[in-house]
Amino acid sequence: xxxxxxxxxxxxxxxxxxxxxxxxxxxxxxxxxxxxxxxxxxxxxxxxxxxxxxxxxxxxxxxxxxxxxxxxxxxxxxxxxxxxxxxxxxxxxxxxxxxxxxxxxxxxxxxxxxxxxxxxxxxxxxxxxxxxxxxxxxxxxxxxxxxxxxxxxxxxxxxxxxxxxxxxxxxxxxxxxxxxxxxxxxxxxxxxxxxxxxxxxxxxxxxxxxxxxxxxxxxxxxxxxxxxxxxxxxxxxxxxxxxxxxxxxxxxxxxxxxxxxxxxxxxxxxxxxxxxxxxxxxxxxxxxxxxxxx
Length: 294
Fold this sequence. Notes:
Radius of gyration: 19 Å
Oligomer: single chain
Structural class: alpha/beta
Mean pLDDT: 92
Protein backbone atom coordinates (compact mmCIF):
# COMPACT_ATOMS: atom_id res chain seq x y z
CA UNK A 1 0.00 0.00 0.00
CA UNK A 2 1.22 3.51 -0.78
CA UNK A 3 2.04 5.88 2.05
CA UNK A 4 -0.62 8.47 2.98
CA UNK A 5 -0.01 11.87 1.40
CA UNK A 6 1.90 14.38 3.48
CA UNK A 7 -0.10 17.40 4.62
CA UNK A 8 1.01 20.94 5.36
CA UNK A 9 -1.28 23.19 7.38
CA UNK A 10 -1.19 26.99 7.06
CA UNK A 11 -2.52 28.99 10.03
CA UNK A 12 -2.53 32.76 9.35
CA UNK A 13 -2.73 35.12 12.31
CA UNK A 14 -2.50 38.78 13.18
CA UNK A 15 -0.82 37.87 16.45
CA UNK A 16 -3.21 39.57 18.86
CA UNK A 17 -5.24 36.59 20.08
CA UNK A 18 -2.58 34.14 21.21
CA UNK A 19 -4.85 31.92 23.28
CA UNK A 20 -7.14 31.16 20.33
CA UNK A 21 -4.07 30.58 18.17
CA UNK A 22 -2.65 28.08 20.67
CA UNK A 23 -5.95 26.20 20.68
CA UNK A 24 -6.06 26.12 16.88
CA UNK A 25 -2.50 24.80 16.63
CA UNK A 26 -3.09 22.20 19.35
CA UNK A 27 -6.22 20.91 17.61
CA UNK A 28 -4.32 20.50 14.33
CA UNK A 29 -1.40 18.73 16.01
CA UNK A 30 -3.83 16.41 17.83
CA UNK A 31 -5.15 14.99 14.54
CA UNK A 32 -4.77 11.22 14.33
CA UNK A 33 -3.29 11.23 10.82
CA UNK A 34 -0.97 8.45 9.66
CA UNK A 35 0.98 10.55 7.17
CA UNK A 36 3.54 13.32 7.69
CA UNK A 37 2.00 16.50 9.10
CA UNK A 38 3.72 19.89 8.92
CA UNK A 39 2.27 23.08 10.42
CA UNK A 40 3.31 26.68 9.80
CA UNK A 41 1.88 29.80 11.42
CA UNK A 42 2.11 32.95 9.29
CA UNK A 43 2.16 36.26 11.16
CA UNK A 44 0.38 38.87 9.08
CA UNK A 45 0.10 41.50 11.78
CA UNK A 46 3.71 42.12 12.73
CA UNK A 47 2.78 42.02 16.41
CA UNK A 48 4.75 38.88 17.06
CA UNK A 49 3.47 35.38 17.82
CA UNK A 50 4.11 33.01 20.70
CA UNK A 51 6.43 31.01 18.46
CA UNK A 52 8.52 28.73 20.67
CA UNK A 53 5.67 27.56 22.87
CA UNK A 54 3.52 26.72 19.86
CA UNK A 55 6.00 24.07 18.79
CA UNK A 56 5.66 25.00 15.10
CA UNK A 57 7.50 27.44 12.80
CA UNK A 58 6.24 31.02 12.72
CA UNK A 59 6.85 32.93 9.48
CA UNK A 60 6.32 36.57 8.60
CA UNK A 61 3.99 37.26 5.69
CA UNK A 62 6.41 37.88 2.81
CA UNK A 63 3.76 38.58 0.21
CA UNK A 64 0.90 41.10 -0.09
CA UNK A 65 -0.34 42.17 3.35
CA UNK A 66 -3.57 40.44 4.30
CA UNK A 67 -5.04 37.00 4.56
CA UNK A 68 -4.43 35.80 0.96
CA UNK A 69 -0.77 36.81 1.11
CA UNK A 70 -0.37 35.07 4.46
CA UNK A 71 -1.91 31.90 3.06
CA UNK A 72 0.37 31.98 0.02
CA UNK A 73 3.44 32.58 2.20
CA UNK A 74 2.57 29.38 4.03
CA UNK A 75 1.93 27.41 0.85
CA UNK A 76 5.28 28.51 -0.60
CA UNK A 77 7.11 27.39 2.56
CA UNK A 78 5.70 23.85 2.46
CA UNK A 79 6.95 20.78 0.60
CA UNK A 80 3.96 18.50 1.27
CA UNK A 81 1.63 16.67 -1.11
CA UNK A 82 -1.45 18.43 0.24
CA UNK A 83 -2.13 21.82 1.81
CA UNK A 84 -4.81 22.65 4.37
CA UNK A 85 -5.94 25.93 5.91
CA UNK A 86 -7.04 26.63 9.46
CA UNK A 87 -7.94 30.12 10.68
CA UNK A 88 -6.43 31.05 14.02
CA UNK A 89 -9.84 31.24 15.74
CA UNK A 90 -11.18 27.91 14.47
CA UNK A 91 -10.75 24.35 15.72
CA UNK A 92 -10.29 21.14 13.79
CA UNK A 93 -12.30 18.37 15.42
CA UNK A 94 -10.97 14.81 15.80
CA UNK A 95 -10.79 12.82 12.57
CA UNK A 96 -11.04 15.84 10.25
CA UNK A 97 -7.84 15.34 8.31
CA UNK A 98 -8.01 11.56 8.00
CA UNK A 99 -11.62 11.66 6.78
CA UNK A 100 -10.87 14.20 4.08
CA UNK A 101 -7.69 12.44 2.93
CA UNK A 102 -9.62 9.17 2.63
CA UNK A 103 -12.36 10.90 0.66
CA UNK A 104 -9.84 12.41 -1.76
CA UNK A 105 -8.20 9.00 -2.24
CA UNK A 106 -11.57 7.43 -3.06
CA UNK A 107 -12.73 10.14 -5.47
CA UNK A 108 -9.35 10.96 -6.97
CA UNK A 109 -10.20 14.60 -6.33
CA UNK A 110 -7.81 17.46 -5.70
CA UNK A 111 -9.82 19.67 -3.31
CA UNK A 112 -11.88 18.74 -0.24
CA UNK A 113 -14.15 20.50 2.25
CA UNK A 114 -16.29 19.29 5.15
CA UNK A 115 -19.31 20.32 7.17
CA UNK A 116 -18.81 22.70 10.07
CA UNK A 117 -20.10 23.45 13.55
CA UNK A 118 -20.74 27.17 13.97
CA UNK A 119 -20.09 28.46 17.48
CA UNK A 120 -21.63 31.78 18.43
CA UNK A 121 -21.76 32.63 22.10
CA UNK A 122 -22.92 29.50 23.89
CA UNK A 123 -24.65 27.99 20.88
CA UNK A 124 -23.24 25.49 18.41
CA UNK A 125 -25.08 24.72 15.17
CA UNK A 126 -24.05 22.12 12.61
CA UNK A 127 -24.09 23.29 8.98
CA UNK A 128 -24.25 20.44 6.48
CA UNK A 129 -24.28 20.49 2.69
CA UNK A 130 -26.52 17.44 2.28
CA UNK A 131 -24.19 16.18 -0.46
CA UNK A 132 -20.76 14.60 -0.91
CA UNK A 133 -19.72 16.85 -3.79
CA UNK A 134 -19.91 20.61 -4.37
CA UNK A 135 -19.96 22.02 -7.89
CA UNK A 136 -19.26 25.47 -9.26
CA UNK A 137 -23.00 25.85 -9.90
CA UNK A 138 -23.64 25.15 -6.21
CA UNK A 139 -21.21 27.88 -5.18
CA UNK A 140 -22.73 30.38 -7.59
CA UNK A 141 -26.22 29.75 -6.24
CA UNK A 142 -25.14 29.82 -2.59
CA UNK A 143 -21.97 30.79 -0.77
CA UNK A 144 -22.31 27.48 1.14
CA UNK A 145 -20.90 28.47 4.53
CA UNK A 146 -19.75 24.90 5.17
CA UNK A 147 -17.25 25.26 2.30
CA UNK A 148 -15.19 27.31 4.73
CA UNK A 149 -11.49 28.10 4.45
CA UNK A 150 -10.71 26.15 7.64
CA UNK A 151 -12.08 23.02 5.93
CA UNK A 152 -9.94 23.31 2.78
CA UNK A 153 -7.57 20.47 1.89
CA UNK A 154 -6.10 20.46 -1.61
CA UNK A 155 -3.17 19.38 -3.73
CA UNK A 156 -0.22 21.71 -3.24
CA UNK A 157 0.56 23.74 -6.32
CA UNK A 158 -2.91 23.35 -7.83
CA UNK A 159 -4.27 26.64 -6.49
CA UNK A 160 -3.15 29.82 -4.75
CA UNK A 161 -5.17 32.46 -2.93
CA UNK A 162 -5.80 35.58 -5.01
CA UNK A 163 -3.94 38.43 -3.31
CA UNK A 164 -5.97 41.06 -5.16
CA UNK A 165 -9.03 40.33 -2.98
CA UNK A 166 -9.82 43.69 -1.27
CA UNK A 167 -9.30 43.43 2.46
CA UNK A 168 -8.99 39.66 2.06
CA UNK A 169 -12.76 39.49 1.56
CA UNK A 170 -14.16 36.48 -0.32
CA UNK A 171 -10.74 35.09 -1.22
CA UNK A 172 -11.90 31.71 0.13
CA UNK A 173 -15.12 31.76 -1.93
CA UNK A 174 -13.07 32.69 -5.01
CA UNK A 175 -10.60 29.87 -4.31
CA UNK A 176 -13.38 27.31 -3.87
CA UNK A 177 -15.08 28.47 -7.08
CA UNK A 178 -11.87 28.12 -9.05
CA UNK A 179 -11.31 24.67 -7.54
CA UNK A 180 -14.84 23.54 -8.37
CA UNK A 181 -14.43 24.66 -11.98
CA UNK A 182 -11.45 22.36 -12.32
CA UNK A 183 -13.23 19.43 -10.71
CA UNK A 184 -16.16 19.06 -8.27
CA UNK A 185 -15.09 19.53 -4.65
CA UNK A 186 -15.02 16.37 -2.54
CA UNK A 187 -17.13 17.11 0.51
CA UNK A 188 -17.22 15.15 3.78
CA UNK A 189 -20.65 16.03 5.15
CA UNK A 190 -19.80 15.69 8.83
CA UNK A 191 -19.08 18.69 11.10
CA UNK A 192 -15.33 18.29 11.52
CA UNK A 193 -14.38 21.96 12.03
CA UNK A 194 -15.68 24.32 14.71
CA UNK A 195 -15.94 27.84 13.31
CA UNK A 196 -16.02 30.56 15.95
CA UNK A 197 -17.93 33.48 14.54
CA UNK A 198 -17.67 35.74 17.54
CA UNK A 199 -13.94 36.38 17.08
CA UNK A 200 -13.72 37.05 13.33
CA UNK A 201 -11.67 40.07 12.19
CA UNK A 202 -13.69 40.45 9.04
CA UNK A 203 -17.32 40.10 10.07
CA UNK A 204 -18.06 43.78 10.72
CA UNK A 205 -15.80 45.46 8.14
CA UNK A 206 -18.70 46.56 5.97
CA UNK A 207 -16.79 48.74 3.51
CA UNK A 208 -14.42 45.84 2.88
CA UNK A 209 -17.37 43.48 2.48
CA UNK A 210 -18.85 45.76 -0.16
CA UNK A 211 -15.52 45.93 -1.99
CA UNK A 212 -15.19 42.14 -1.74
CA UNK A 213 -18.64 41.52 -3.22
CA UNK A 214 -17.99 44.01 -6.03
CA UNK A 215 -14.70 42.18 -6.68
CA UNK A 216 -16.51 38.84 -6.90
CA UNK A 217 -19.10 40.23 -9.33
CA UNK A 218 -16.32 41.60 -11.55
CA UNK A 219 -14.15 38.49 -11.28
CA UNK A 220 -16.99 35.99 -11.69
CA UNK A 221 -19.59 37.55 -14.01
CA UNK A 222 -21.47 34.24 -14.05
CA UNK A 223 -22.66 35.15 -10.53
CA UNK A 224 -25.12 37.56 -12.12
CA UNK A 225 -26.41 34.82 -14.46
CA UNK A 226 -27.81 32.70 -11.63
CA UNK A 227 -30.87 34.64 -10.46
CA UNK A 228 -30.90 33.14 -6.99
CA UNK A 229 -27.17 33.68 -6.50
CA UNK A 230 -27.34 37.20 -7.90
CA UNK A 231 -30.23 38.11 -5.60
CA UNK A 232 -28.26 36.85 -2.61
CA UNK A 233 -25.22 38.99 -3.45
CA UNK A 234 -27.36 42.05 -4.22
CA UNK A 235 -29.19 41.56 -0.92
CA UNK A 236 -25.88 41.34 0.93
CA UNK A 237 -24.75 44.58 -0.71
CA UNK A 238 -28.04 46.22 0.28
CA UNK A 239 -27.56 45.13 3.88
CA UNK A 240 -23.93 46.30 3.98
CA UNK A 241 -24.85 49.75 2.65
CA UNK A 242 -27.77 49.94 5.09
CA UNK A 243 -25.42 49.12 7.97
CA UNK A 244 -23.15 51.98 6.89
CA UNK A 245 -26.12 54.35 6.81
CA UNK A 246 -26.03 54.74 3.02
CA UNK A 247 -29.76 54.49 2.46
CA UNK A 248 -29.96 55.31 -1.24
CA UNK A 249 -27.39 52.66 -2.12
CA UNK A 250 -29.17 50.19 0.15
CA UNK A 251 -32.48 50.82 -1.59
CA UNK A 252 -30.89 50.58 -5.03
CA UNK A 253 -29.36 47.17 -4.30
CA UNK A 254 -32.52 45.94 -2.56
CA UNK A 255 -34.50 46.78 -5.73
CA UNK A 256 -31.97 44.82 -7.79
CA UNK A 257 -32.28 41.89 -5.40
CA UNK A 258 -36.08 41.93 -5.74
CA UNK A 259 -35.71 42.12 -9.52
CA UNK A 260 -33.47 39.09 -9.64
CA UNK A 261 -35.61 37.09 -7.23
CA UNK A 262 -38.80 38.54 -5.74
CA UNK A 263 -38.59 36.25 -2.72
CA UNK A 264 -35.03 37.20 -1.73
CA UNK A 265 -35.25 37.68 2.09
CA UNK A 266 -32.21 39.92 2.44
CA UNK A 267 -33.84 42.76 0.53
CA UNK A 268 -36.63 43.55 3.04
CA UNK A 269 -34.20 43.01 5.91
CA UNK A 270 -31.83 45.55 4.38
CA UNK A 271 -34.67 48.02 3.86
CA UNK A 272 -35.74 47.61 7.50
CA UNK A 273 -32.18 48.35 8.64
CA UNK A 274 -31.93 51.33 6.27
CA UNK A 275 -35.21 52.72 7.63
CA UNK A 276 -34.03 52.37 11.22
CA UNK A 277 -36.74 49.85 12.08
CA UNK A 278 -34.25 47.28 13.35
CA UNK A 279 -30.51 47.61 14.12
CA UNK A 280 -28.12 45.61 11.97
CA UNK A 281 -26.52 44.15 15.11
CA UNK A 282 -29.88 42.69 16.18
CA UNK A 283 -30.36 41.03 12.79
CA UNK A 284 -26.87 39.57 12.81
CA UNK A 285 -27.19 38.35 16.39
CA UNK A 286 -30.36 36.46 15.56
CA UNK A 287 -28.88 34.95 12.40
CA UNK A 288 -25.52 34.02 13.94
CA UNK A 289 -27.23 32.35 16.86
CA UNK A 290 -28.82 29.99 14.32
CA UNK A 291 -25.56 29.36 12.51
CA UNK A 292 -26.41 31.64 9.58
CA UNK A 293 -24.98 34.85 8.19
CA UNK A 294 -26.52 37.61 6.15
